[in-house]
Amino acid sequence: MSVLGLIAGGGDLPPAVARSVRESGRAVFVVALAGSTGGDWVQDYPHEILSPGEPGRIIRALKAHGVHEVLLCGRVDRPKFSEMKLDAKGMLLLPKAIAAAKKGDDALLRFIVGICEDEGLVALSVAEAAPGLVCRDGAVGAMTPSPDHRADIAAAFAIVRALGALDVGQAAVVCEGLALAVEAAEGTDAMLARIETLRESLRGTAARRRGVLVKALKPTQDAKTDMPVVGVATVRNAHAAHLSGIALEAGQALILDRAAVAAEADRLGLFVVGVIP
Amino acid sequence: MSVLGLIAGGGDLPPAVARSVRESGRAVFVVALAGSTGGDWVQDYPHEILSPGEPGRIIRALKAHGVHEVLLCGRVDRPKFSEMKLDAKGMLLLPKAIAAAKKGDDALLRFIVGICEDEGLVALSVAEAAPGLVCRDGAVGAMTPSPDHRADIAAAFAIVRALGALDVGQAAVVCEGLALAVEAAEGTDAMLARIETLRESLRGTAARRRGVLVKALKPTQDAKTDMPVVGVATVRNAHAAHLSGIALEAGQALILDRAAVAAEADRLGLFVVGVIP
Q: What is the DSSP letter of A215?
C-alpha cells in the first residue's frame, strides 16, 4: 500500500489516526498545518510543517513522499488571511479560500480537500484510512441508556440535525425533554462546561446524573473531513457536567481509543452508545 | 376598561408591562408567581403572591379584583413539583402540569394560560395589552445595519427559526457567516457573555465590532406568552460581546423603554433594528 498523506489540524484525532494507520502496517507522511496542529506527536513521523496558504508546497511535499491517498483531519482554525504565509498557488487561490472561509469552517475544509483532488490525489475518509476508530452500533462500556434516555437521545439528534443543516454545530445536550445547551463556535468541551452554570432544577447533579450529550455529523458535512469525535476527555467532561451518558450515530462518528473510553465510562458510571437514529 | 390581571414571572418585562398599561389609564392587578417574580415593583400595584401550583386561588384572586382580561408574562422557572405549594385545583391538574413541563417551558406557560381561559378569562398578548412595547420596522437608534450585517441577520434568523421549531431557544449570534453562539437553556445574557471566550479571529473586538444578535419568536410559541424581549441591558451585553448590533422581527418582539434603548445604542455605537425577515 502507498504512503498515506495525513494533513493534520489540531486536537486528538490526527495523532490517533496516524497511530491507527501505522499499526495497520501502512506508512504515514504528515503535513502539519502551521497554526493549527499542536503537540509533539508529529516528531514520531516523517513530516513537514506548512501553512494552509501554501497549497503548492503541500502538494509537492506529499508527492515527493510517494503519497497517492490523502486524509485531512483535525481542527483547522479559520485563518487570519492577512497574516498567512502564502505560496504562488496560495495567492492564486486566496480569493476562493476567503469566500469558502466566510461560508463556515466546513466549506474551508472542503476547499482544501478539493485542491488535493484537483492535483490527482485521492481523498480518504478517516473511516476508510482507520476503520478501527469508527463508532459501532451498541454500548461501548457496561452502561446502557434507559427508555427515558432514549427519548432525550432522539430529541438531541433532531436538534443537531436541524442545526447541522445550517452549518452551526455538531452537538447538543438534552435533559428530560429540555435542550440545555447547543454547540456553535465554542466547541463541545466549552458547551459541556457551561451545563453546571444552569439552574440546578434543570440539570443533573453529582448525586443524580441527568441529561445526554449527542454528537452527530452535520448533513452538510463530508465524512471525509469532519466526523464527530469522542475520546476519554469527552467522557470526563460529560461526567463533570453531571450527564447520564453520550450517544453517537453508529458508523458516522469516531471513538479515539475505544478500550480507554469504555474503561473511563465504566469507572465514572456513564453510558457511551452508538445508535442508529 | 376592566382591570387587567397580570400574572407575573421574573425579569424586566412584567414591570415594564404594568407601567405601560397603567400609563395608558388602565388599572392593573398583579399575581406574582412565588419563586419566579423578583424585585419590589409589585409593591406599587394591588397584588397577591401565589404559587403556580395554586391555580384555584389565582383564578379566585383575579375574579375578586374584577379581572376579565389576563396577561401572563416574564420568565417562569420550571418548578420543583415536589416542593411546590398546591391548592385543590393544583393537585387535580398536577399530572397535566408535569407532562406539560416535560415538553419544555413554553408548554408549561401555555398550560397556565389554558387554565385561565377554561375559567372564562380572556388571555391577552403583551402586544394587545401594551402595544407601545412592540418593536416596529426600522432602526431604533441612529445606527443602521450594512449589507454585510443584513446577510448575517438573515443567517441568524434561519438558525433561530430552525431551533425554535424544536422549542430550543430564541437567539443566535452570527459573525460574517459563522454562527458564534446559539441559545438554549442558558438564556440570551449568558449566551452573549461567552462570545468573548471565543478565539479572537472568530469574533469582534473593542477596536472592531463584528457580529449580530438576532432574537425571534419560536414558531411553536404563542405571542400571548413569550415574545422575545430587548432592553438596555441587552444593548450593554451585546456591546460587551463586541457585536455590531441587534435585530428583531418587527411586530414579533418587545423593546422595553424604546427611548432608553435608542439612547444607549447610540452612546455605545450599536444598531438596534426591527426587520421583516
A: E
Which among B159, B165, B194 has the least Cβ separation from residue A168?
B159
Closest chain A CA to residue B158: A166
A136 touches chain B (CB under 8 A): no
pLDDT of residue A224 exceeding 60, the answer is no
The amino acid at A106:
D
Class of residue B25 by CB neighbours under 10 A (exposed 0-12, middle 13-18, buried 19+): exposed
The separation between CA A108 and the C-alpha centre of its own chain, rounded to angstroms, equals 15
Are B215 and B171 spatial neighbours (Cβ–Cβ below 8 Å)? Answer: yes
Residue A87, SS3 per DSSP: coil
In terms of Cβ atoms closer than 10 Å to its own Cβ (0-12, 13-18, 19+), residue B210 is buried
CB contact under 8 A, A198 and B185: yes
Q: Which helix H or strand E contains B259, and what residues bound it? A: helix B258-268
Contacts of B184 in chain A (CB under 8 A): 172-173, 179-182
| Helix A232-240 / helix A258-268 crossing angle, nearest 10 deg | 20
Q: Which three cell numbers stand for residue B137?
A: 420596522
The residue to which cell 434516555 is assigned: A149
Q: What is the tens place of the pLDDT at every residue in B215-241?
A: 998 776 666 566 888 999 999 999 999
Give every CB contact of residue A253 below 8 A, 6+ residues apart in sequence: A134, A135, A215, A216, A217, A227, A228, A229, A230, A274
Cell numbers representing residue A109 in the block: 475544509
Q: Report pLDDT for B104.
A: 61
B184 touches chain A (CB under 8 A): yes
Sequence-ordered list of residues with C-beta below 8 angstroms from that of B167, at least 6 positions apart, any chain: A179, B103, B104, B106, B107, B218, B220
Strands (E), chain A: 3-8, 28-33, 47-50, 67-73, 122-123, 138-139, 171-175, 178-182, 212-215, 229-230, 245-249, 254-255, 271-275
